[in-house]
Design goal:
CATH architecture of the largest domain: 2-Layer Sandwich
Structural class: alpha+beta
CATH superfamily of the largest domain: Pseudouridine synthase
Strand content: 25-35%
CATH class of the largest domain: Alpha Beta
Distance between the termini: 88 Å
CATH topology of the largest domain: Pseudouridine synthase
Order of helices and strands: HEHEEHEEEEEEHEEHEEH
Number of helices: 6
């Protein structure tokens, strides 16, 4: 009678190649990216480019920027997406250039521009403190479950609801009195949810020509990186560990 003995069978199995149970798949990337968003790119575009560059990992952001605007966008990767609400609540800093003597249907260069020839007073009265503000009609705020800009594009008549925001600083940095193209530059520090386009439009006969977000809470645009190149992988993204980010967010609050 022929056949393999139990010992021979065991020896054969042991010699066969099998999975390396000590090996581990590379950990999925997670953390916070500080991105310097360029003009012409939407916040959704940035998130999509990061997701592609990191092979489809979960990605979100902590506060949108209009396509025409530039500056700091906080992008959340992996389990850091759970920090979204805490980071969205941080105060913001902006620098903006306002076109004077004209209005825009959207409050920015992408709308229908009307030259009025009427200039806001000089010096300007710049409001600070708690303000009641309405979001622009062309904004992402939801009106009865739908984004306001979608209703505005259809020509619907509606008024966005008021919200209370806080403006900590609203300072005119310079003013160009060139009659052909009068402009002024401003520095603004404000609470989350403040619409800089509305602050400028409320000056009268003015709209945001340029807008740059320079800081979110303790995070500065000078620390930010450009978004990944379209179609290329991002093997070593400059991710901040979620724990480090939480410490940075809590320290300023504890000092107040």
């Amino acid at each position: 009678m022929t056949g393999s003995s139990p010992s021979a069978s065991t020896s054969s199995s042991a010699g066969a190649p099998g999975p390396d149970r000590g090996a581990h798949a590379p950990a999925a990337p997670e953390g916070v990216l500080l991105i310097d968003k360029p003009a012409g790119m939407s916040s959704h575009d940035v998130v999509a480019s990061v997701k592609r560059a990191l092979s489809g990992v979960k990605v979100g952001h902590a506060g949108t920027l209009d396509p025409f605007a530039t500056g700091l966008l906080i992008v959340l990767v992996g389990r850091a997406t759970k920090m979204q609400q805490a980071l969205m609540a941080l105060p913001k800093r902006y620098e903006t250039v306002a076109r004077l003597g004209a209005t825009s249907s959207t409050g920015d260069p992408e709308g229908e521009i009307t030259d009025t020839g009427r200039l806001p007073p000089d010096p300007l009265v710049l409001p600070t403190g708690q303000l009641a503000q309405r979001a622009p009609r062309y904004s992402a705020v939801k009106i009865r479950g739908e984004r306001a800009y979608r209703r505005a594009r259809r020509g619907e008549q509606f008024e966005p609801p008021q919200r209370i925001v806080t403006v900590y600083r609203f300072e005119q940095l310079w003013r160009d009195r060139d009659p052909a193209h009068p402009r002024a530059g401003f520095a603004i520090e404000c609470s989350a949810g403040t619409y800089v386009r509305s602050l400028i439009a409320d000056l009268g006969d003015a709209y945001c020509e340029q807008l740059r977000r320079t800081a979110i809470g303790p995070f500065e645009v000078g620390e930010a990186s450009a978004p990944p190149v379209r179609g290329e992988r991002w093997p070593d993204p400059p991710l901040l560990a979620p724990e480090r980010v939480l410490v940075a967010v809590r320290e300023p609050a504890a000092a107040q």
